[in-house]
Known about the structure:
This protein has helices at residues 3-30, 33-39, 43-54, 61-79, 88-111, 117-138, 147-150, 154-180, 185-206, 214-231. It has 241 residues and is an all-alpha fold.
Amino acid sequence: MTIRSAALFLFCGIAYGPGTNALSALGAYATNASHAVLLLSLFPPLAAGLAALFLRERLSQLKTFAIVIGVIGAATLTLTRSSGTATTIGDLLIAAFILAWAILTLGIRQLDKTYPALFVVGVFGAIGCVSLGVIGLAIGRLDSVLIPVRHVDLQTVLWFDLELVLLLSLAGQLLQSMALRVLDVAIVVALTSYGSIFFGLAASLVILGERLTVQDILAAAFLVAALGLSLWPERGFSTGR
């Protein structure tokens, strides 16, 4: 393994552990589920823009327009006061999580060119867990690691052990890494975000009983438009590179 690859694994591990996991948990605690889900619409255009900038993947005028629309929608959602448990700090934490997720996706794309998908996920996942443990030790909260062990009820087993650990952290990351081996970043993140938005927003409305305000609906219109443009076929649009 080269020094460059080792550094990229370390970078991905930090983006995965303290970045996506910690920021998503803190953001979800500080804002409501519908805001968190709607902000995920910013992920496809953001990741596509970063891929065009750093990986030299082609970014069409249509995708560029999608980025602009997505930024407007995210700003509308984040900077307006909404009902329920939504907060500006929480929305900003979710936005930071999305940025970390986009950066992580680019790192996985680069590592997949050299290493098997399972190896990539295993290495950066282990680094992410260790980095979270180091942070917990530094702030005197290493006992948080034992919380899942102390709760063995059905709800914890289903939502934490099964959904978060097995499905999202292991299976989800592995499938994303395998997809990035054969597909461009823009396509993978668009499909990933679409599924997350659809099921997450439905769950926030049906299961949690949350309601969207007028500002939320306006922001959602921008964000859904950005998502639709990021998925729209590019025939007839010139590329930006």
